[in-house]
Amino acid sequence: MTSPTRVLIAEDEPLAAEALADWVAQMPSLQLVATCGDGASALAQIRALQPDLVLMDIQMPVLTGLQVVQALAADDHAPAVIFTTAYDEHALAAFELHAVDYLLKPFSHERFVEAITHVRRDAGAALAGAVDALQANENAPLARVLVRDQGRIFPINVDVIEHLRSDTKYTALAVKGRSYLVRLPIVAFEQRLDPARFVKLHRSCIVNLDFVESLTPDENSQLVARMTDGTLITANRDVSRKLREQSI
User: What's the count of helices (H) and strands (E) in the chain, helices before strands?
Assistant: First the structure.
């Protein structure tokens, strides 16, 4: 007989914590070991009880859920984590955590069961990915970005992002004919994208050179990038000059 998955709930909202506890109790495959109302107690209890799974809120007193998971990176035991959050603006901070799932409040019982099923099926692989990612160099180029779509948050590999366009608060990521809006300015991406692959054509647009079909000068001698999806993006004068200098 398979042992139940030992679960710890880290949630500072009493009603939300109670609802999660009720759902855990309804599943014979789960065993609730503790409920914590702040990040510091969650960290201490995780280390003491070593649960298999943590249902982790992000916005909590003392330590955030992200800070708790980061603190666990150096430990011998790190549980699988499902983030339960009403926020998506932490995408760049969370993208490397490889959490098993991201439940956006308010979420249904069906979504909860789906996430738990994922944990039971692939907890080992998810845990290994989380530890590896947390121990990676935070100054390394981005590997993936979390995006929100139709009530879910999921990761997109940076390699498949064709171009990024931004206003002061949001950035739109073009991926395979779709556009995903992230609540972050483009400067937040600029410092973490591989400069050998991603080029900032002007202050509000970055392109992935892998998806640039051609660069053609316009009537003002500024280079116009034709993307593989047909989008035309004009580089500013300084960038146009630098691109010419780099060409053979």
Answer: 7, 15
